[in-house]
Every structure is written in C-alpha cells, then in structure tokens.
Specification:
Shape: globular
Radius of gyration: 22 Å
Length: about 600
C-alpha cells in the first residue's frame, strides 16, 4: 500500500476556517443529566470561608444520549460538520451514551471530539452501527486526523468492519468491535497512527497504509499487514515476533499497566472508575466480567468549566477535591499544582490547558497514585521552561505499588498560534507510567517556524523505573527524548525529526550531525526499548545529514530491540541507526534501515 511522508509540511498551512459553536447546539442537545445537589467538602478539609462544591452538571459541550433520545444522528452530524476540518479550532465535545442499545447510527468523529459509553463495561453500551474516522476533508490523507477518541463502547458495524483512519493523539480504548477494524482511509491513502488499548476486536484488524501502530493489552481476531513498525504487548491474537520482515514487535505481556480512569453511570449517579494496576498484563480488563478497581462519586470532583481560574482549580485541589475538566479551553496564569496522593485530573473532550505567561501548566508533588488523563496542553506565546512536570526536581520516593499515570495527555507547541516551551514534559517521579502521549512541535498550522515555535526538548525522564507504553514525540529543535533515569523502559516509539531545520549548522550537536531522536544518558547503566522508529524529512534543506536516530552508552545493561530509521522520500538522510551501528539510509526509496538487537 502507498506510504509517503507523514504530516506533509506543505499541507494544512493555509488558515483553517474556525467555525463558531452553532447557536442551536446547546438548545437542541440532549441535556446532560444534573448530578444531584452539590456537596461541600467537610470543614476539616478546607481552611476557606466558603467551600467549593463537588459535582454539578457537565456543561454545554458534554452531550449525553440515552436510547430514547430523539434526533441522535442529526446531533452527531451537526457536531461533525463543525469539527470535521477544524484542526486548530476552539470547539471541544464529549459525546456520551448511557447504557443500552442504539440502532442505525454512524458517529463520524472530527477534531477534539470524544465518544464514550457510560457503562462499567463496553458491552453495557452497544451501537448497532459505526464510529467512523475517515479523511474526506483532506482528500483521502489521514495523516492529520489528530485529537479524537473512542472509549468504552461495543460496536456492531453495519458492513461488518468499522473504519478508524487516525493519526496521532487518537486513542481507541476499552472498545469491543463485533467485526473487523479498518485503520486506513477510503482509497488507502496515507495514514500515520495510532494506539489501541484494553479492546477486543472480534474480527481482523487491517492497518493497510498505516505506517506504525501500537496495541496494548487487547484481543484481536487477526492482523493483516505491516508497513514500518507494528508493536504489540499483552495482545491475544497478535502476530508472532518477526521484525523486520514483516516488522512486527511482539511482547507476550505488558510489564506494568493501569488503564485510564473513565466516567460511568451507576444507576443515575455519575462516578469515575479507577482501574487497578496489573503486572505482566495480557488481554482486556473487562473480558471476564466487572473490571477490577475502585470508583469515586462525582461529588468528590470539582467539575471545571472554561473560564475558571487556576487559583480556583488549586483551591479545589487544596480542599481535597479531584478535577474533572469539561470540554473547552482553560487559560492559566499559574500552574495547576497537584500535591495530594491519589488525585485524579481527568479531561473530557480534549479539554485544553494554555499557560499564558510562561508558567508550567501542571505540576505534581512526589506522591503516590496521581492519575492525569485525557487533556491537551497547548504552549502559550511566552516561553515556558516546562509544560508538564511529574514530581519535583530530585524526586526519589518509590511508587512501584501505586505509580503516577500520564494517559492520553497530549502536548502541542504551535499550530493553533505561536507557542514556545524549552522542555515539554519532565518526568521526575519514579515508577511513572506514560501510557500514550503525543508531544508535538507543530510542523504546520499558524505560528510555525524554526524559531517561531521554538521547543528544544520533547520529553526528559529523570526518574528511575519509568515505563513508557506508546510514546509519540515529534519535531523538536534538539533532542526529542532524553532519558537520565535508571531502569527505564519504552514499548513503541514514533518520531519525526524537525522538518524545518534551515541547514546543517542549525542542528549541529557539537561534533555530531544532529540530535538523536531518543538519547539515553551516558550515566545510565540499565535501559530497554522495543519497537522504536525515527524518521527524517528535512524538506527545507534536503542535504542535511542526521548521524543517528538513537544514542546511548554501549554497555550490556542498555538494550534495544527492533529499531528503524527512515528517510522520507530522500529529504535528508541518516548515517546510522543507533550509535555507530546500522546501515545508512539512501536515495528516495523510503526504505527503513533496521537494527534487530543492540548491543
């Protein structure tokens, strides 16, 4: 199947129409259920004259359906028309379906749109129909189908196969497809995704033109093909290990996992379910009945709406509440500071945090069990030294029994406007699990240029024993990933070096040609990675040479499995894959250079 450079830098550069919220939407939407009376926190937990309330309604951009709701398809179509091509627009939506059966629906998902069932199991909410992502808006090119999600539903596709042609930041979680799953757009155009977790696909998954994909702790009826890098961990029915031909990297289990928190209904009461941690996980959490874990009533959450101040969010946290960020854009003049163990910060509908004055958007203390999930951080016009910090500098406590999880937390620098950040995400706390992130210095949109949306570093891991499952980091001016902690592990990595480097000198790293996409510090004695890929597309100066995609100290405890580098259409080249190992890329054939095992 055809495969060409992802996120074509010439595509999408013209300003996209930003459609205002349709005035009729709030009036015609099925109203979100009110969640009972708000309950103030106990006086013992707050030192304020007036306690902030927990619970409340979910706001106008959360649209809740039940099987008796009239006009569901019309409402789905209305949201899709608005969001289909609004790549850098301001609309944010969560489409939630109460348990039951829905017939004859096709929920097409555009940008910043999440669809989810409100049952405890995906099979509690069945759509006899489809949840569709295609690329008609972009002439059959799916490489920019970002920022949308499906979660906690059972689908019985009309044709027998559901189409989910996505790129980065588009998770497919806790889904049961009673048929097949097609990951390519109509016409088998370019595609660059993606991520599946805790899902069951009864039929086969057909990636077709998808260049890479990561599937975790799931069950599939079959897998049809691979292009460059298909990685599986804990997946029943996954193809056998065979990298590089075909390029399947298969781990029998996932070392540690804990699924993303999710909103559900217990009768008429909204609660947030917190899945328990699993070790050596394989298959779904829900296949044999009720998933294991605990839950919290929504009355223990401050239900935030756009316009709220960072001071109010922090007051809610200080009071002992968790945060539920309803869909919208939140401007911050100080960091959200999470200090309490086991705090949940859960976003709906791609709730977006923007630091306006160079602050860090969110910081956590070095405590157990924080869960950060389901939101986007968009860098502001004043440079932030960091955008997300998990644990303070020097954090050292052991959190192996109850780690912090960072799940479907996405970072963007530029695209929706000029933004800057020196380092996007810093992980200081030990044992943190980074489960699916896309950290992206924009290569198209507005506010894009080598120095306009300057961002030197993507992710820096300082903490020991950190695990990344599904790591997508792209286009940073220097290192995309820097790893200083001991005993780190990464299962699946996808990277593109910055397209817009003006010349060789701009990326020179001392005597080395270019900054590696994934750099393990020389001080690290134990590290391991599986299924890691880096691509270059130096279209501004195609003569640029990148020495390697990966760099690490050459020692027995630092191990890599199934590495690849690709020159997209010959726009720039790699000399090596890792350190001084691996053959150079050459010509315009877009054929990966691979290393099966290192050292």
């Amino acid at each position: 199947m055809p495969h060409t450079p992802t996120h074509s830098p010439d595509s999408g550069r013209s300003p996209l129409a930003r459609r205002s919220v349709l005035g009729a939407m709030a009036a015609t939407a099925a109203a979100p259920a009110l969640l009972g009376t708000s309950s103030p926190a106990s006086a013992a937990s707050v030192q304020q004259p007036r306690a902030l309330p927990g619970g409340g309604d979910l706001g106008p951009n959360v649209i809740v359906f039940d099987p008796s709701t009239s006009g569901i398809q019309a409402k789905l179509d209305e949201v899709f028309r608005q969001q289909e091509s609004a790549q850098f627009g301001t609309g944010r939506y969560a489409l939630l379906f109460k348990p039951g059966t829905y017939n004859g629906l096709n929920a097409q998902l555009g940008f910043y749109t999440s669809i989810a069932g409100l049952g405890l199991s995906p099979d509690d909410t069945t759509i006899n129909g489809d949840v569709t992502v295609d690329a008609g808006w972009f002439n059959g090119n799916a490489t920019q189908n970002f920022w949308r999600s499906a979660e906690n539903l059972a689908l019985a596709p009309v044709s027998g196969t559901n189409r989910w042609a996505v790129a980065q930041a588009a998770p497919f979680r806790r889904m049961h497809v009673k048929g097949g799953l097609n990951l390519s757009p109509t016409g088998y155009g370019w595609a660059s995704g993606g991520y599946i977790a805790d899902s069951r696909i009864d039929g086969s998954v057909g990636p077709y033109s998808q260049q890479q994909w990561y599937t975790r702790d799931s069950s599939v009826g079959g897998w049809l093909n691979a292009v460059w890098n298909m990685v599986f961990s804990g997946v029943q029915g996954a193809p056998a290990q065979s990298f590089p031909n075909p390029p399947y990297t298969t781990l029998d289990t996932t070392p540690v996992s804990r699924e993303k928190p999710f909103l559900y209904l217990n009768g008429s009461e909204y609660r947030v379910f917190l899945p328990e941690q699993r070790t050596n996980a394989r298959g779904t959490t829900w296949g044999s009945g009720t998933p294991r874990g605990t839950s919290l009533p929504l009355t223990q959450f401050y239900v935030a709406k756009p316009g709220v101040t960072a001071a109010t969010l922090n007051a809610a946290l200080t009071q002992g509440l968790h945060l539920l960020l309803t869909p919208g854009i939140y401007h911050l003049d100080q960091p959200i500071q999470v200090n309490r163990a086991n705090t949940v910060v859960l976003g709906l509908g791609y709730a977006t945090l923007i630091p306006d004055n160079g602050v860090t958007a969110l910081k956590t203390a070095d405590v157990d069990g924080v869960r950060l999930a389901g939101f986007l951080i968009d860098a502001g016009p004043v440079n932030s030294s960091t955008l997300l910090e998990v644990g303070p500098t020097g954090a050292s406590a052991n959190h192996s029994a109850n780690p912090t999880t960072v799940q479907d937390v996405f970072v963007r620098i530029g695209g929706a406007g000029a933004g800057k950040a020196t380092t996007s995400m810093v992980i200081n706390s030990r044992n943190t699990i980074i489960d699916h992130t896309w950290v992206w210095r924009a290569d198209h949109g507005t506010g894009v240029g080598w120095d306009t949306n300057r961002a030197d570093y993507g992710i820096r891991v300082n903490g020991d024993d950190v695990l990344a499952t599904g790591l997508f980091v792209e286009h940073f001016n220097k290192y995309d990933v820097q790893w200083y902690g001991q005993r780190g592990r990464t299962i699946f990595f996808q990277n593109e070096k910055a397209y817009d480097a003006p010349n060789q000198a701009a990326i020179q790293n001392g005597s080395v040609k270019g900054y590696a996409a994934y750099k393990v510090a020389d001080s690290v004695t134990t590290h391991e990675g599986w299924g890691l890929g880096s691509y270059c597309y130096y279209n501004v100066d195609p003569t640029i040479v990148q020495h390697n995609g990966f760099a690490a100290a050459n020692r027995p405890g630092v191990k890599f499995h199934d590495l690849l580098v690709v020159s997209l259409g010959g726009q720039g080249q790699y000399e090596r894959v890792i350190n001084e190992t691996g053959t150079p890329t050459s010509g315009t054939s877009t054929v990966p250079s691979t290393v099966v095992s290192y050292p």
